[in-house]
Amino acid sequence: xxxxxxxxxxxxxxxxxxxxxxxxxxxxxxxxxxxxxxxxxxxxxxxxxxxxxxxxxxxxxxxxxxxxxxxxxxxxxxxxxxxxxxxxxxxxxxxxxxxxxxxxxxxxxxxxxxxxxxxxxxxxxxxxxxxxxxxxxxxxxxxxxxxxxxxxxxxxxxxxxxxxxxxxxxxxxxxxxxxxxxxxxxxxxxxxxxxxxxxxxxxxxxxxxxxxxxxxxxxxxxxxxxxxxxxxxxxxxxxxxxxxxxxxxxxxxxxxxxxxxxxxxxxxxxxxxxxxxxxxxxxxxxxxxxxxxxxxxxxxxxxxxxxxxxxxxxxxxxxxxxxxxxxxxxxxxxxxxxxxxxxxxxxxxxxxxxxxxxxxxxxxxxxxxxxxxxxxxxxxxxxxxxxxxxxxxxxxxxxxxxxxxxxxxxxxxxxxxxxxxxxxxxxxxxxxx
Amino acid sequence: xxxxxxxxxxxxxxxxxxxxxxxxxxxxxxxxxxxxxxxxxxxxxxxxxxxxxxxxxxxxxxxxxxxxxxxxxxxxxxxxxxxxxxxxxxxxxxxxxxxxxxxxxxxxxxxxxxxxxxxxxxxxxxxxxxxxxxxxxxxxxxxxxxxxxxxxxxxxxxxxxxxxxxxxxxxxxxxxxxxxxxxxxxxxxxxxxxxxxxxxxxxxxxxxxxxxxxxxxxxxxxxxxxxxxxxxxxxxxxxxxxxxxxxxxxxxxxxxxxxxxxxxxxxxxxxxxxxxxxxxxxxxxxxxxxxxxxxxxxxxxxxxxxxxxxxxxxxxxxxxxxxxxxxxxxx
Lengths: 433, 331
Description:
The complex is a heterodimer. Chain A is of the alpha/beta class. Chain A has one domain: TIM Barrel. Helices cover 30% and strands 23% of the residues of chain A. In chain A, the strands form three sheets. In chain A, strands 1, 2, 3, 4, 5, 16, 17 and 18 form an eight-stranded mixed sheet that branches. Chain A has an eight-stranded parallel sheet with strand order 6-7-8-9-10-13-14-15. By secondary structure, chain B is an alpha/beta fold. Helix content of chain B is 34%, strand content 15%. In chain B, β3, α2 (72-83) and β4 form a beta-alpha-beta unit. In chain B, α1 crosses α9 and α3 (104-112) crosses α4. Chains A and B meet through α6 of A and α4 of B.
């Protein structure tokens, strides 16, 4: 389900890093040896075996990250991102695997389009990339794609991300068919008659600024519908980019009742609130929108208690000229691959809102599990999917910071703490600062 | 007055002295408002003279850029600049490069190349004036940006109320109608809060934005509430809003029956204001519009002197300090 440039795996030796893998219960200073891309030894005072040595002193070695939600804009908007640039950005962000959404032009709704993407990924992807295919043809919401064929052709899951599956009847059919494809169905929850023309969260800030509101209930109503359908069909589903307190509540309830639902949350929803929109900066315009402080708190709580098991960037590159317009004229979406860890470390871990181990788990094993991918682990015999983090690095994010073709980041100009120094994906160094 | 916070410092050369703008009431202080009102009053007196033109802004260039149709705002800005002897230029979106799809940023950069002292902009989208302020060196005046702000309207409304009542502190103003879509209402609510007036918003539930109470005002759907106010400020009921199938109200007919401002709903002596253009017979009964207690024409005159005050203030005074009348007379 994941595809990348085929390059020979490496022999590596990471010396003296603080190795942290919450899933393995590891936290201590060790050496890690990698033979042919596979972790072969974990211990103290290991022999380098003449492998390429990466100095880990003062750094944290963690399982590399998995981003279940990126937009690579290919095919159709290669000026904004390509598989090469997007996967290079992922490597720089500490990711060993990313999943790309199918809302491209054309939409990934046929085995032919999917096949072409997989071929490109094999030629140019720096880190393994998986591709979701659409639930409905052209994401039109009326006719299912040939999901079984798409799954056989390598689809990592199914989503109409960007738009909701409006019809409950069709949503039910898609969930039923999930039993055949054995792939996760990922849902963008939005009741568009409630969010119509919405520019930002409906609340005190939208009332003052005059923007048309996009109320929380536009999301949570759809979340509740989809959870009810999943419960009825006894099928799993994955909820994309949750933003509202009510959605977290509904998900927590459904999971307690045994619904196999997973969910993700973005760094921007975890770090910001609708107060940020007062800047009128188009780089804080996204769908779903930034919500109130109590929504943010609920998302953080949900992340901590395991209601939300994945952090997803929803990396959405946009051309500069499309964002340098008044807020209402700008498209939704911000980039995130290269800034996610630093943003979350700075805004959540440093102030003590989320434990470091939780952050690592939700950026790596959590999202992998949601889609049935191999969890990156630091244990002998596992493929080397590792990231070296410098928790003391403090630096300013500028337009020059990015490997992505787009710079529509909400962090521009901000000073953050926590840097990715080296990324090892599928046994190969894909990024070294 | 307002200073634009440069959000992306890395795009800009190191800190030039911040330009002053008039983009949102949110950015100004009570002192700013008092200074502007005092200046406007001085200009009102100067307009009583036989020769109304003042040499104050001779040699300055004011460019008016209007992306939306407007009668009173555009004409009063143009006249305000001319009365102060500034050179003026007016750009309308139709018949300009905007028709050819030029972006606001490029249009602003183009106009900025003429080194205007002030750019007055009206635009259908929130934040357009901030964008212009970011890419040009001119002082920017917001003549209305989408549903966000119309600060010179608020200033002229304060001026009108102050002239009529002699005070703003403690004044009770009921704002009636489509608050949701109204930049006039947003600026006015903030301006009234700044000057110590009390505000009640009255209208159909869907046209009173959720959360607006946070702007220190009360809301009610009961039109009878206007009876308690010193000033009834009637907002324009935008017909186009009713055509989208949005069902903000079931019909204009029902709106008028329920929320129209009629003589029967007013107390004698209550003052009535309207930012124009009016829909007579919809939000305001013609008998109210034409009554002596309506300050609508006063508002238009106040618009001229308030805008003169804004242009004068941006181009001549520092961030603080009230210009005396004497100083003006000499100029």
